[in-house]
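Q: Convert this sequence to structure tokens.
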Amino acid sequence: MAGERVKLQVKERERRGSRDARRLRREGMIPGVLYGNGKESFAISVPERELRRVLTGAGGLHAILDVVLEGHKTTHASIL
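A:
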């Protein structure tokens, strides 16, 4: 169903760069960046298995993600 909202838990990461991104991928994590117009950006990582579950769910690639940063109370509506 188009427009389905799916909650996705992500972790903020402190280290950036290609070396650290490769390390994360070896550990089964997907590196990414959460950003918006005029808002602070966050370097994030999400478990590959969790992201795969979201993308192959009923909403597929058209799902709206409610991204929740670990340790934060607010959610960020996001699309891929």
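The chain has one domain: 5-78.
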